[in-house]
């Protein structure tokens, strides 16, 4: 049995400044022996299928900025598994749209210089499935995936929700956990949501021997991971 930390949606290079420190602290506090990024480690606003924000750097500049961030994650967690998110795969989708066969694409480890990481669609630990959750949405995102898969699920993708939702039958107990994200809502990449009253839930999940726990990132004013602590 294992002690697994899962986080999602760092969206490098627009990650909340204290988020990597928070993840490292939780990993150590819970004495975890494995870590999974549930996708969207990279943002890729510059090659979005939507109109680009005028303040956004170009693709080459965004790549260089994100690569520095990824390098810092790699220094902290050289054996991490990444379940590929919809933002991570944007370059591949652009190439496919241009009609270029996938065999001409570089793999993720080559692009990001992460030779020991495993980039996968999903992974399983202690009968719990970990994945990004592309194609699902809404408050009960992870619970809906759980229902469709008939198994416990830990998912990313949805920024605004941190939740553990159990279901019990006569035979088993399963859960769906949304872990939130690690983004900086104030960055231009998320300007589309500036008028929303709801803000992103920053946090991560820890699963100990198949039992889920949710850890919110304490980043309000005066708390440990507020931006002012890293100036």
Provide a descriptive summary of the structure in words.
There is one protein chain. The chain is 22% helix and 23% strand. The longest helix is centred in the N-terminal third of the chain and has 18 residues, at 59-76. Strands 4-3-2-1-10-11 form a six-stranded mixed sheet, with helices on one face. A five-stranded mixed sheet has the order 5-6-7-9-8, covered by helices on one side. The model has no long low-confidence stretch (mean pLDDT 91). The chain has helices at residues 19-29, 59-76, 90-97, 108-112, 141-149, and strands spanning 3-7, 34-37, 81-83, 118-120, 122-125, 128-131, 152-155, 162-168, 173-179, 203-208, 211-216. With 231 residues, the chain is of the alpha/beta class. The protein has one domain (3-230): Metallo-dependent phosphatases (Purple Acid Phosphatase, chain A, domain 2), CATH 3.60.21.10.
């Amino acid at each position: 049995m294992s002690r697994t930390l899962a986080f999602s949606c760092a969206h490098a290079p627009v990650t909340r400044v204290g988020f990597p420190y928070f993840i490292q602290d939780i990993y150590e506090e819970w004495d975890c022996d494995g870590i999974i990024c549930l996708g969207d480690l990279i943002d890729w606003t510059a090659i979005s299928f939507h109109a680009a924000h005028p303040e956004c750097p170009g693709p080459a500049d965004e790549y260089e900025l994100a690569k520095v961030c990824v390098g810092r994650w790699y220094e902290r967690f050289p054996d991490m598994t990444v379940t590929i998110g919809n933002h991570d795969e944007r370059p591949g989708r652009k190439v496919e749209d241009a009609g270029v066969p996938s065999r001409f694409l570089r793999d993720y480890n080559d692009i990001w210089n992460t030779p020991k990481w495993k980039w996968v669609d999903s992974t399983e630990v202690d009968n719990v499935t970990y994945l990004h959750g592309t194609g699902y949405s809404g408050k009960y995102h992870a619970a809906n995936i759980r229902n469709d898969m008939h198994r416990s699920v830990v998912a990313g993708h949805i920024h605004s929700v941190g939740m553990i939702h159990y279901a019990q039958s006569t035979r088993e107990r399963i859960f769906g956990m949304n872990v939130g994200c690690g983004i900086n809502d104030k960055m231009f990449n998320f300007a589309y949501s500036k008028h929303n009253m709801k803000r992103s839930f920053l946090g991560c999940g820890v699963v100990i021997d198949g039992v889920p726990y949710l850890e919110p990132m304490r980043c309000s004013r005066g708390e440990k991971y507020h931006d002012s602590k890293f100036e």
